[in-house]
Specification:
The complex is a heterodimer of chains A (380) and B (389). Chain A is built from 18 helices and five strands. Chain A has 380 residues and is α/β, with parallel strands linked by helices. Chain A has a four-stranded mixed sheet with strand order 2-1-3-4. Chain A has two domains: 231 residues, no CATH class; 111 residues, D-Maltodextrin-Binding Protein, domain 2 (3-Layer(aba) Sandwich), CATH 3.40.190. Chain A starts with a helix and ends in an 8-residue tail after the last helix. Chain B is mainly α. Chain B has two domains: 247 residues, no CATH class; 116 residues, abc type-2 transporter like fold (3-Layer(aba) Sandwich). Chain B is 68% helix and 6% strand. Chain B has a four-stranded mixed sheet. In chain B, helix 8 runs antiparallel to helix 14. Chain B is elongated. The chains are: A alpha/beta (380), B mainly alpha (389). At the A-B interface, helix 2, helix 3, helix 6, strand 4 and helix 7 of A face helix 4, strand 4, helix 6, helix 7 and strand 5 of B. Chain B: One of its GO terms (cellular component) is plasma membrane.
């Protein structure tokens, strides 16, 4: 009997094209839009050699030291500047006006910088000029104190730049913040799955739909009918989420870290969470379907917003200033689980998220059971 | 005009849900515009950009303190708890871009010419990383040189010397170019975001009415009325245009309330003109959708895809300069792209001669072309439908 109900519920659900659209196609489309809009954001952050110019006047030609330093930082793979040499000031200004360069240096008693805007590239240029000026001021003050320093290889030491910082990675994964958008998208898709759960509960409450009235007539234990139906809903949602995951991973090349098994497990738990959430809300709200849909929609959207789907830093702000809200938001739990899997080497935080989700699932399921059980309809 | 009146009735009956839409999207528009604008607020004098740095020092020596002070010139220090996950979180969400850890015994090692290194955790290859590196490396390299060539100087003296050397800064001239008042203003972001708000509100509102009229029995009833199809259509279009005009006026009025300063400029006229043309375009698109779709559920799906999609790829949510060229090429097949293009150009207008305006009018004409195309298409489809019915 269980299989029978399961199969027919499955057929019944999968024919609801609208639900399939919202739970499968819509997240895929949104993921595609995300990909198109955000794929370049990380490149924007990457350091590119700055387009800078220097005015090649007589002062610059005589200032051999500055000249050689400029040439030094403008060659090689890790160069700081993409240097252009302007034959005179007018030319440099023309380039600046046309946005061909970010700024230009002029040599003289002090090095001067001319820019058009304030920004990080301009600040780097200024820091560079500051550094040059500071080094010469240091040489002057050392020589004043200790004239022999020059013979002792002061200039040599100056040129012999030593690196005092080494890069250590925080974890095995890169801090690619765009990923959070995709993680919260999957979380949203799981919670959209609550519509399946809602449909299940609606279809066993005889006072709400005709179909439920018919089902209630049948000599089948209600819990059995409900469980079989919920399983069908869960299977559909889980497969949908897997399709979405596969599309993101292999179609759009979104990274999920190396622990594929855990990612699939998270998808499964997320699906259960979605279905049980929908069932619970649907059982709790006695009024019409419109209100139920609106509630699920608002809850999912608000949850997604708070976990950073529209504005990424939201997730961090919530975690920093209102931590309880982060733990009580199912969308955030799911997002954070994916994030923890990708970003952390330890599974501690992931386990916490998963545990919290289990608590939610138990709460929703018990709630639904207590509300739906033993409901009799004397007349409808 | 019975059809017109009926349309008004339908609008009035749905006014709550429609005004809810207007209110929600308005709130989002205002929030987003505000948050983007504050980042862009730039003064006219040069101020050094500050990187967000977390400095964790395992020792406290005069040199590390001096270093902290010098680094503060180019960085904002962010206080973070020294736990791996907290640090990693902050880096992921760009609350800091550079985490620097000074190990114990580092100062002494530098002064003795040793090879100990500090540890940094950064967003790999980022610009801010390069920026902070310059300043960090310099300080310690100088300390090393002082220690070598003035061996008698105490640590405090070195710090003092360094402070003296590092004070003063390179003179920077800002070539003050003419900057339009509306550049990067609230108005610019608001009008950009209007593309999303207007699309959502108009497609929802207009299709709601159209779907009522397209109900099979109702449309059959209308066909056998003694009114000419042309008259019915004209009234429908008029009613929809009125709705569009009112929504547009409300949305523009809010911009006036929130950023009245920009309203004193000439640029705003072009913003308004541009958005009016866009409104016309989206109205005819909504009319087309209304003619094509039969039920409300399908409509909300179509509405979502058609409003979100073009907005994502044409630079409403993420500015066009951050999008890659292929995406922009695809986007140029949507009116939203041209609307945003025109907006960006209008915002930076300082002269209002034909040569400056040409590109703007070009974009506007394209949007107008889209409007006419959608409109013609919906007339053809409407006609076909009538014949089939």
């Amino acid at each position: 009997m269980f299989t029978h109900i399961f199969i027919y519920r499955f057929k019944c659900l999968i024919r609801d094209k609208q639900l399939v659209f919202w739970t499968l196609l819509f997240p895929i489309l949104l993921g595609t839009f995300f990909y198109m809009a955000f794929s370049n954001l990380n490149n924007e952050e990457t350091f590119q050699p700055i387009d800078a110019a220097v005015v090649n006047d007589s002062a610059y030609q005589h200032d051999t030291q500055f000249k050689s330093v400029m040439e030094n930082v403008s060659k090689g793979k890790d160069r700081l500047f993409h240097l252009k040499v302007a034959s005179n000031r007018e030319e440099a200004e023309k380039w600046l006006k046309k946005d061909k360069i970010k700024g230009f240096f002029t040599s003289g008693e002090v090095i001067k910088l001319t820019v058009k805007d304030t920004g990080i590239s301009q600040s780097i240029m200024k820091s560079f000029a500051d550094q040059y000026r500071t080094s010469s001021s240091m040489v002057t003050s050392i020589v004043k104190e200790n004239p022999k320093a020059l013979q002792n290889g002061l200039l040599n030491d100056l040129g012999n730049h030593r690196t005092y910082v080494k890069e250590v990675t925080g974890g095995s994964a890169e801090p690619n913040n765009v990923l959070n958008y995709f993680y919260s998208l999957i979380a949203m898709a799981c919670l959209y799955g609550s519509f399946w759960g809602m449909k299940e509960v609606t279809d066993i409450q005889a006072d709400i739909t005709d179909r439920a009235a018919r089902v209630n007539m049948a000599p089948v234990h209600k819990l059995k009918a409900f469980l079989a139906g919920s399983c069908a809903a869960l299977v559909i949602l889980f497969v949908e989420i897997l399709i979405l995951l596969a599309y993101l991973r292999f179609g759009l090349n979104i990274s999920f870290g190396n622990r594929a098994g855990f990612v699939v497990l998270t998808a499964l738990v997320g699906s259960v969470l979605g279905v049980s959430f929908g069932a619970f809300i649907s059982a709790l709200v006695k009024k019409g379907e419109g209100l139920k849909i609106a509630l699920l929609m608002v809850a999912t959207m608000a949850g997604s917003f708070l976990s950073g789907m529209m504005f990424m830093n939201m997730k961090y702000l919530i975690a920093a200033y209102v931590p309880p809200l982060a733990w009580l938001n199912p969308v955030n739990l799911l997002t954070d689980a994916f994030y923890a899997l990708y970003y952390y080497d330890s599974l501690h935080r992931y386990a916490l998220n998963l545990g919290m989700m289990f608590l939610f699932i138990i709460f929703f399921c018990t709630g639904t059971y207590l509300i739906v059980r033993r409901r009799k309809y004397a007349s409808i | 005009m019975p059809v017109f009146k009926l349309c008004m009735k339908i609008f009035l009956k749905n006014w709550l849900s429609i005004s809810l839409y207007v209110a929600i999207f308005l709130a989002i528009a205002i929030m987003i515009s505000m948050s983007t604008m504050s980042e862009q607020n730039k003064s006219s004098s040069f101020s050094q950009e500050k990187a967000k740095v977390a400095l964790i020092s395992e020792e406290k020596t005069p040199l590390t303190e001096g270093f902290r002070q010098e680094l503060a010139k180019s960085s904002d220090f962010v206080k973070l708890p020294d736990r791996t996950e907290a640090l990693q979180d902050a880096l992921f969400f760009r609350n800091v871009t550079y985490i620097l850890r000074i190990p114990k015994g580092f100062t002494e090692d530098v002064l003795n010419g040793g090879s100990m290194q500090m540890e940094k955790t950064v967003v790999p290859n980022s610009t801010e990383n390069a920026y902070v590196d310059i300043n960090v490396e310099q300080y310690w390299n100088m300390a090393r040189i002082y220690a070598k060539h003035e061996p008698k100087a105490s640590e405090q003296q070195v710090v003092k010397q360094l402070k003296k050397n590092l004070s003063g800064s390179t003179p920077v001239t800002i070539k003050a170019h003419e900057r339009a008042q509306t550049a990067n203003s609230f108005s610019m972001y608001y009008f950009n975001f209007l593309a999303y708000t207007l699309s959502a509100v108009l497609i929802m509102g207009i299709s709601t009415v159209m779907i009522v009229f397209n109900k099979r029995d109702l449309s059959r009833r209308n066909f056998c009325s003694p009114m000419r199809a042309r008259s019915i259509n004209t009234q429908l279009i008029l009613a929809n245009l009125l709705f569009a005009a009112i929504s547009w006026a409300i949305l523009v009025a809010f911009c006036f309330l929130l950023d009245s300063k920009s309203f004193a400029t000439q640029n705003i006229l072009f913003f308004i003109m541009n958005s009016a043309i866009f409104t016309a375009c989206i109205s005819s698109l909504s009319y087309l959708i209304g003619n094509l779709l039969k039920n409300l559920n399908a409509m909300s799906a179509v509405c979502n895809v058609l409003t979100l999609g073009p907005c994502f790829i044409s630079g409403v949510f993420v500015p066009q300069e951050f999008l890659n060229s292929t995406v922009l090429k695809i986007a140029s097949f949507t009116p939203t792209y041209w609307y945003v293009q025109a907006n960006a150009k209008i915002a930076t207008l300082t002269h209002f001669e034909w040569s400056d305006l040409e590109a703007i009018f070009y974009s506007m004409v394209i949007v107008l072309g889209f409007a006419i195309a959608f409109f013609a298409l919906s007339l053809v489809i409407g006609k076909r439908k009538r014949l089939i019915n």
